Amino acid sequence: MVNHIRRLERRKSRRTFRVRNAIRRNSTRQHRLTVFRSNSNIYAQIVDDEHSVTVCAANSLQKGLVEGSGGNIEAAKAVGRKLAELALAQGISAVTLDRGSYRYHGRVAALADAVREAGVDC
Q1: What does the domain layout of the chain look like in residue ranges?
Q2: Which of 19, 56, 115, 118 could crosslink 80 through cysteines, CB 3.0-4.6 Å?
Q3: Per-residue pLDDT for 67 more than 90?
Q4: 2-117 is classed in which CATH architecture?
Q5: Burial 73-95 (b: 16+ CB within 10 A, else e)
Q6: Region 105-114: what's the mean pLDDT?
Q7: Spatial contact of 36 and 70, defined as CB atoms under 8 Å apart
Q8: For 37-48, how does the pLDDT look when each residue is reduced to its tens digit (9 = 90+)?
């Protein structure tokens, strides 16, 4: 059982490395939109890698942002809209999506689409 868990963790870390390495190599944008999702909530932040600073962040735990469950597609859309609003207020109009080890599917895709619809190129 322990070997199985270690194997799964190793696969996840390889996927994460692959995605982030491709972003580092190919991206010409200064800011990166990182996504973390748990079973019950979703978190997103925009990071300035040049200065190693989090510029803005949003999550489904914020008061008044999401009613009910924070672990569904509607919550991801709300978090994406809020994050785009904060980014535009900071003067950020283009970011690179860092999905980590998650597939571009479901909540991650909904968050990215909501950011795009709100006016940030992602």
Answers
A1: 2-117
A2: 115
A3: no
A4: 2-Layer Sandwich (3.30)
A5: eebbbbbbbbbbbbbeeeebeeb
A6: 96
A7: no
A8: 999 999 999 999
